[in-house]
Write a structure and sequence with these properties.
Length: 350
């Protein structure tokens, strides 16, 4: 009966268009969450409950699909207390408890992408120096990754430190993102584009960085004027796609637009950071709602199949054509993306 059940489940998944991973499933690995920047923490370092707020960050969906988290405060610097007081104790605990012996998958959001890159570059050295074995990190799934920095961080810090009058549009964009101008900037210093791109540029760990990209905005477009190329309201595609250099890019793929249209993309990212691979994109999701359970719209595949080394990820897709003659357009969408949220699709591919 068990064999028949498994066979039936696999066939059902194939028919429903759910992404399948082979030869093993996500249950064989441990899923570790690394959250992103939390602006409201900047002005209240003494009243921040890092662990509780880390849990709440993922409460919409991922908290029920993870084995552990790495929580950190936004009011500190990455290579300072975030590393010594928050990252290191977690890594040490994972190593001592054998958490990642079967393999760990990191699921990151926003600045969690930058934190993960820093971990990948340093964890083996840190743990070996402590007489412990390095963690077996098999991949990271990076949602709306800010590993390439955000021009909004540059804009906010420059406005606060220049001593000049902040223009109306600049102030509106900053307040839309941060709520108010903070007194301290913490990890925002690390999020300045040039600073972010100097962090662990060539990580010693070659775990694949799988990218999931959004292109809508939580801020009614107020922030988009400060973000080159396409953006998700907080980061540009040069960051979320994992481009090797900052720039104005329209897609992560040279053959499919972020909205799924199958046509040549002259402004696509063509050179990527080491081991960075875009998989899914959507023009219907924003930076903030990408990790949530709520459905927002259709998702397209930059790649329909990818060999991640430890397994192969496949996305079933279909094509949809609109118009005719000169107005004919063909779009590629991930099956079930008209009913499942972006995060549900990602979970199916873990």
């Amino acid at each position: 009966m068990k064999t028949n059940f498994v066979y039936t489940a696999v066939i059902s998944a194939l028919l429903s268009g759910v992404a399948l991973s082979t030869p093993v499933q996500a249950a064989d690995y441990k899923t570790i969450l690394i959250h992103g920047f939390q602006a409201d923490q900047l002005n209240r370092p003494t009243s921040t409950n890092v662990e509780l707020e880390g849990q709440e960050y993922w409460s919409s969906f991922w908290i029920n699909h993870a084995d552990a988290r790495i929580d950190w405060p936004s009011y500190e610097r990455l290579e300072g207390k975030i590393a010594t007081d928050f990252i290191w104790p977690k890594l040490k605990s994972f190593a001592e408890n054998g958490t990642c012996d079967p393999g760990c998958v990191f699921v990151t959001h926003s600045t969690g992408d930058l934190v993960a890159r820093y971990i990948l570059d340093n964890q083996a050295t840190w743990l070996q120096n402590a007489g412990l074995s390095p963690l077996n990190i098999v991949a990271t799934f990076d949602l709306a990754g800010a590993g390439g920095g955000s021009e909004l961080a540059d804009t906010a810090i420059n406005a606060a430190t220049s001593g000049g009058i902040v223009g109306g549009l600049t102030r509106q964009a900053i307040e839309a993102w941060l709520g108010s101008m903070p007194e301290e900037f913490g990890i925002m210093w690390d999020l300045k584009v040039n600073n972010a791109r100097q962090v662990s540029q060539y990580p010693s760990d070659n775990a694949p960085r799988l990218r999931f990209v959004a292109d809508a905005s939580d801020y009614f477009g107020l922030t988009s004027g400060f973000l080159p190329g396409n953006d998700d309201g907080v980061v540009s595609t040069h960051s979320s796609c994992g481009a090797s250099a900052k720039g104005s890019f329209g897609s992560c793929s040279s053959s499919v637009a972020i909205n799924g249209q199958l046509t040549a993309q002259d402004d696509a990212v063509t050179s990527f950071m080491p081991y960075h691979y875009p998989l899914l994109m959507s023009a219907e999701y924003s930076h903030g709602n990408l990790p949530d359970r709520d459905y927002q719209g259709k998702v397209t595949a930059a790649r329909t199949q990818f060999n991640a080394g430890y397994k192969t990820i496949r996305f079933n897709t279909y094509e949809e054509t609109t118009g005719s003659w000169f107005w004919k357009k063909t779009y590629r969408y991930v099956s079930e993306s008209d009913s499942q949220s972006f995060s549900q699709l990602i979970l199916s591919s873990l």
